[in-house]
Amino acid sequence: MFMNLPIHKKFTAVILIICLSSILIFALIINLTLNHNFKNYLTQMQIHRENQVVKSLAEIYQQSGGWDDLPFEFIWGQAVFFANLRYVADSNGDVVLLFYHGRRPLEPASLHSLPIIVENHQVGTAFFSQTAFQNLLSRQDKLYWKTIYDSIIWSILLTATLSMIIANLFSKKLSAPIIEMNNLAHHISNGNLDARVSRLPKDEIGQLGHSINQLAEKLSQVEELRKKMTADVAHDLRTPLAIIHSHLEGMIDEVIPASPENLESLLEEVDRLTILVNDLQEISLADRSIKTLKQDLIALDSLIQDVAKKITPLFANKGVDLKLGNIVPVNILSDRDTLSKILDNLLSNALKYTPAGKTVQIELLEDNKMITMNIIDQGIGISEKDLPFIFERFYRTDQSRNRESGGFGLGLTIVKELVEAMGGHVTVSSKVGQGSIFTIAFPKIGDIHN
Q1: Splitting the chain (450 residues) into consecutive groups of 10 residues, what average pLDDT does each group show?
Q2: Given the DSSP bridges, would you call strands 296-299 and 331-334 parallel, antiparallel or unpaired?
Q3: Do 297 and 442 fall into the same domain?
Q4: Which of 81, 146, 162, 287 sits 20 to 30 Å CA-CA off 21?
Q5: What DSSP element (H or E) covers 185?
Q6: Residue 375: which of 444, 430, 418 has the closest Cα?
Q7: What is the residue range of 120's domain?
Q8: Domain at 417, CATH number
């Protein structure tokens, strides 16, 4: 039942239970302490009173000259003073004074005695019973004791009331961000990605809220990219399909001849559609590759040289010079096909954005912990507003719909996911008009499991 309560009621109940438990424990300790101390006080009072009684009996004995002529009227008149005195025996053990107030005298075993001393001689013995503590209390004592108990009870009630109010206010304040985060999650699940958590506290709950806000922001960006990508896909598919449709319709109507030139034009459009579909498949293939990564010892310098040799003709056709800079011999524990795909994507990307007559250079460096590979181009560069998003799915730095320069923005996304799957990370620095540097860093073999 408790688990089904709203969170602010749970907070209220927990805080209230803690407060009330603390109050009750505190009250119990105070009560026990007061009882203990008050009993000690009453015990000392009883001892003092019994000493006074013995002292008075010695004075009466001395004034009367013995136990035979005791002033009984005085003694009985001071019955309250002699309240717990049961009887007095002389030096021979004979009872000379008996107090039992209509009750049978108590057995000596249930009494305690004090000697009655006159001039350093014991002239008798006074026997006392254990008096109930309440009989020793005066009216003022009883009033004082009642006031203390009333104060404790009222303090408990007042503190419990204040605790309930404070616990309720505090729990609502504490649970408000959590409730707001829950509402935000509902908004996100319903497709409202513009909602955000506001008034975040500066604690772990605030950090959670900040993370949820970041998640919502990320989802919003991905949704925008998805919508843009859908529009791009629709446009990029529509153009070749429209061309193919019009040409085929013209050929059927014999308006356009089915010449090799026209059929070759149609084939080019089909190739464009094939490239589009392949691009869309790339991301799922990359996800599949991540799940089947191998861990083999690879000479990364040799792999770079092999990939560069294979792709050099493409650079030569465009008039871009592909150079190998400082390439240190180094081994890495990774998947050869995945590394080749990463290099292929980065070099193809560099070739796409580097004009003829410029250079693309590959470097391979190492330090104590990391192996670093740099792809340096002299291309058109990337603007500062695009840099934070170039690794996002479907993001295109070229906002035009030109397939040859823009693409679907999957190449760099694939690179990032594959690099991170192998325990590395990829970064980029760029200046518009000067070129870009893509840096991939992998941990050295001895640091992979550290």
Answers
A1: 64 76 80 79 81 86 80 60 77 78 54 87 85 58 75 80 80 76 79 74 76 81 74 76 86 84 84 75 60 79 92 92 93 86 88 92 91 93 84 61 48 81 89 92 66
A2: antiparallel
A3: yes
A4: 146
A5: helix 139-189
A6: 430
A7: 2-136
A8: 3.30.565.10
